[in-house]
Design goal:
Blueprint (H helix, E strand, L loop, with lengths): L7 E6 L20 H10 L4 E6 L11 E3 L7 H11 L4 E6 L7 H14 L2 E4 L6 E5 L3 H9 L5 H4 L5 E4 L12 H7 L2
Parallel strand pairs: 1-2, 1-4, 2-3, 5-7
Antiparallel strand pairs: 4-6
């Protein structure tokens, strides 16, 4: 498998309110907070990693935080924040609550995006674990500005290449029961 190579930025989306969990799910973890686990995973497939989150939320963890320009507006706003801030052509974006994602898969997404010049989204689609071209910014912004917030609808407004993926790596941790099933 080809390496992702230079020119890939990574972003961990951690701007949610964790309402169903009842506490900040990004801080769950017995050995390390989930947000740091995800930063370390994304770091293995990118040159740089930032956490996209509301101001003041994770600054004490020693990781670069990119302040979400649209807090409370969902993951489309988080991805817009990332793409507006990046100078990289290829940008890995991973939701903080996907602890089963692995570095090999992330490297595969990044490599395909570098090789093809396309945004790469796993089939499903699973747009919250994907490699976006910076050039997707305008299409996503137009969707967002028109009131769109659902990410599965957003990717209809940008060119993407869907790739097969094992669905078991996209387990989300949104409730205490889901956390118990993947606890680390």
């Amino acid at each position: 498998m080809a390496e992702a190579g230079p020119g890939v930025a990574g972003f961990v989306l951690a701007g949610g309110e964790s309402r169903r969990m009842g506490r900040d799910k990004a801080m769950l973890g017995e050995t390390e907070p989930m947000v740091l686990r995800m930063v370390n995973l994304v770091k293995q497939a990118s040159d740089t990693v930032f956490v996209v989150a509301p101001a003041g939320r994770y600054e004490g963890l020693g990781v670069p935080v990119l302040v979400d320009l649209w807090p409370g507006e969902g993951p489309v706003g988080g991805v817009l924040t990332a793409l507006a801030a990046t100078s990289h052509a290829v940008n890995l974006v991973v939701a903080v609550d996907m602890p089963k994602v692995n570095p090999d898969f992330l490297r595969r997404l990044a490599s395909l995006a570098v090789e093809t010049g396309q945004s790469i989204v796993p089939e499903g689609p699973e747009p919250l674990c994907a490699a976006y071209q910076r050039s997707a910014l305008d299409g996503l912004r137009a969707f967002f500005d028109a009131g769109g917030r659902r990410f599965r609808d957003a990717i209809q407004h940008i060119p993407v290449r869907l790739v097969p993926a094992a669905p078991d790596i996209f387990v989300n941790v949104n409730t205490p029961e889901q956390w118990e099933a993947v606890r680390f």
